[in-house]
Each structure stands twice: as C-alpha cells, then as structure tokens.
Amino acid sequence: MRIADLRAVRDTDLTADVCVIGSGPAGLTIATELAGSALRVLVLESGGLELTPESDELDDVENVGAARAQPYRNARNRILGGSSHTWSGRCAPLDELDFATRSWVPFSGWPIGFAEVEPYWERAAEYLGLGYGAGFTGDRFWELADRTPPRPELDRRWLRPYFWQISKDPADPFDSKRFGAHAADISADNVRILLHATVSHIDTDPEGVRVEALRILDADGNERVVRARRIVLAAGGIENARLLLASNRIVRAGVGNRHDTVGRFLLDHRCGVVGALDPHTSAGLRDRFGKYVVKTRGGKHTFLHGLALSPEIQADEGLLNCALWIQEVPSEDDPWESVKNLLRGHVTMHDARTVASHPGLLLSGAKRRLIDHTGLPRKLEHVELRCMVEQTPDPASRITLSDRLDHLGMHRARIDWKVSDQEDRTVRRAAAMVAGEFARLGHTPPALDAWVRETSTAPAQLTDWAHPTGATRMSADARTGVVDADCRVHGMTNLYLAGSSVFPTNGHANPTLTIVALAIRLADALRR
C-alpha cells in the first residue's frame, strides 16, 4: 500500500475501480476490507499526516441554528485517519428499538434491521480494538465478565443496565484506536492513499445518474481529475452532504438531490450534566456504576456501566432513547495521568512529583485493576451524572450551502441544527427516574440541576456531542432519504455513501462502531 502527496502523482495514476473519498474510520475500513482483492482502490484524503491551520480552516461552517458547544473541527479532522484523530473511543451498538418504526418518533425506522447489522458489529470490533462488537450492552455483560450481577436489581419497568466499551489502540493501550497511525499497515499493492487531495466537484452524466469523474484540488489549488468505476463518499457527517450539494454544475440541485433530501434531517446527540454526586459519599454507587476490566479473546478491555431507558417506558410515555452514566472528573493533581505519561516514556518532573506524592492511591489502584478488575480510584474534583439522548428526526434541521467561500473557493456548509421539546422532556424524565432508582437501591441520589426538574421551564442545558448524523439518510423511499438499504444513492448507479450521515435515527449510542460495521457491509457489496 502506497501513501503519497497528490502533487507527486501522475495523471495516469488517477484511475481506480473504487475511489473512496475520506480516510476516517469508514474510508480506511473499506480500503482495508478491499486490500488484496482484484479491485484497484484509491483513497483521497483532504489533509495530510498532521493537522495544519490551512486544513483546519476548511472545516469552518456558518451556523444559523441551535448553538453548538463542540467545535466543528473536533468532528471534522482533515488528516489521515479523519475523526479518529480526536474521538474519545467510547463504543456501543445501536439498540434493536433504534431500527424500528416508532409511532411516537416521526420519520423513524431503518430499511435494514438489527439482525442484519449485528454480524458486522462483530467484525468491526477488530478494527476498533474492542473485545466484543455486540451482545455486551445488557445483562449478558455479567456472563462475559464472569461476574455475578449486583443486587438489588434495577427496576426494569423504567431502566435497564447499559454498558459502553472503550476502544484500545494496538500500539498504545492507554489510547483509543487512531486509524491514521495504522494506514501504512494495509499490506496490499492494490490500495493507494493520496494526501492533500480535496474533492471539489462530483461530475455526473447530464441526467445525474452516473458519476463520470471527480474534480480534486491539491494543496496548491491546482485541479486534477480522478476517474473510477465506483465512488464511495466517506467524508463525514457534514461533509458528505456539503459535497453533494456543492456538486451542482451539471445537476443544479446537487448530486443525488432530486427530492430535496440532501442535507435534511441533520441529527446529533444532545448531551450534558444533569446532576451532581458527593465524591465522599458516592463511592458505593460509583463502584457499581463504574468501570470494569474484562479479559476477552483480544486481551483486557474496559467497560463503563450506565443506565438506559427501557423500551417499554419509551413507548408508554413517548420518550426518545436515552442513557445516563456517572462521570468522575479528576483533579489536576490526580496521579493516574502522570502514571500513563511515565509508562509512555514521557518523563517530566511534574509527573514524577505527582506520582511520588500519592502512594496510597496508587497502591489501591493496583489492587482494583489487577485483583478486583475495576476502574482506577481517582483523586476527584467532582462527580457528575451525565446523559446522552437521541434526537427527533426533523427535515427542517439541515445543511445547506453558505455564500461564504473557503480558501479553495468552495462554499462552506451552512448549519441550521434544530432541537426539540421531546428531547428536553426525555432527559428530564430520565434524570428523575435515575435519581429515584439510585435512592431505591440504597444510595444517596444525585442533586439534580434546577433545569432538569420535570416542572422546570428553564432552557435545557444540553449541547451537541460532535456526532453529526442523518443528513444523507438511508431510506426505502427516495422521497424521504438519500441512499437505499445498500448505501447507494437513490437513482444513481455507482455512487455510495458511508459514515454516520446515512443513519435515519441515531439512538443514544456513540456512532463509530456502527459507522465501521456499515463500512464493512458496504465493502462486502463492492467486492461482490
């Protein structure tokens, strides 16, 4: 596998059987799956091996909708490896309910089901440094962990146990998987990656049925042309829609936009702190709903225990899918970050002093990690109860093109992100149920923030989580989505989309595990 700067490549090398636009988790997964096949694969990455101010500037947007706390540059990394450069590594599959058509959630329902995606989650585990790809988020966790479930049990009428798994990089056990660092390990001559190759336009035939060529710009702004039999757009939750809309020289409305669906139904996860726990009196609660270390076939992996709304209460009360967890916020002089730095060989006097001044905490941590197989005891600043809720699909929540141009002359994305009362109501109800359940289990409940109380009329203190989703959604009907069940653009013969932009709904789970699973599924189809 070869990695090269576009400026060093001849025009005769700009042809392929499959061209993948974007080198994030979706793009590099597809390239890896096709490595060693008979297909010539070309991956185009707008950035390089390092983030630069010039590449960062290309990710700026015009925001005219709800305020967003997460900088767009956190969600859109123009660098080899894409968004895996900054992601947190938390993984979970979607719930079976997320794929269903729910009468209380408008525009819900996927054209594929949970059972169809499940085997691909298992295959995705290897790409993300996980012990398991599916089947670990509920009661089966205790069997996998070889542990007795804690007592008393949760009241399943309202809440269910939920577990997230933390990605582990094969080269650094203290970090999440960084795809860019492993791109050179793709050992196949049929895969090439071109850096500083920004796609500026997708050229189609006059009817907009087939992609004929890709216009790409190098770092100096010079235009080149790529031709491929099949094209996979895997540029991210915002960029996929932006590039389809910006490709409007031949088809005025943009590629794949016959029914004005490209850019609509923009989703994110709304997240925030809903309450606080006393660090000194919540140790028992944090032990139960904390981190667990589990030995799997791929080594030791870390899981986080939280709670999610039961499917029954969602249906009965018209609520969205929502999960909550306890978040420990370490003090500045917590020794464990210093321990990690020392183990990585990054020795500083500050780290050495911090480690030396906390012998008791370190000894307790060694016992918890090696004997109890639980999370490390931290020196805490405070303890929070946090939530993550799915969004109500809304066609008015959308991406369009701004009149403002970037330095390559492309229109920036214009973001009009909408939030709904259904999301606010879900979070308030979920927080109240968790507080009540903690008390029933014999623990001091969290002090809920004033805005969270169910009678409150104060604005919800929730932000986005840099998980842009849904703007090129999957649908059985071309009038309500952009791609079909095979992720091929409706009405087109050779253009496919990959990434979170194809999700019709986003559940409460972090999206990367499902992004990689659907990328593997798409690679299987391309290989066939």
Summed up:
This protein is of the alpha/beta class and about 525 residues long. Helices cover about 25% and strands about 25% of the residues.
Task: State the main characteristics.
globular; eight-stranded antiparallel beta sheet; about 525 residues; alpha/beta; 13 helices
Question: Would you mind describing this structure in some detail?
Answer:
Helix 1 (25-34) packs parallel to helix 13 and helix 4 packs across helix 13 (512-527). It is built from 13 helices and 19 strands. With 528 residues, it is an alpha/beta fold. 24% of the residues lie in helices and 23% in strands. Strand 12 and strand 13 (299-309) form a beta hairpin.
What topology emerges from the helices and strands here?
Elements: E1 2-5, E2 15-21, H1 25-34, E3 41-44, H2 53-57, E4 62-63, H3 72-75, E5 90-91, H4 114-128, H5 140-144, E6 159-166, E7 191-195, E8 198-204, E9 211-217, E10 223-233, H6 239-246, E11 270-277, H7 283-288, E12 291-296, E13 299-309, H8 311-317, E14 322-330, H9 335-343, H10 349-356, H11 359-372, E15 380-389, E16 398-405, E17 411-416, H12 421-440, E18 447-448, E19 495-497, H13 512-527
Parallel strand pairs: 1-7, 2-3, 2-10, 3-7, 4-17, 10-19
Antiparallel strand pairs: 5-6, 6-13, 8-9, 9-10, 11-15, 11-18, 12-13, 13-14, 14-15, 16-17
Helix pairs in contact: 1-13, 4-13, 9-10
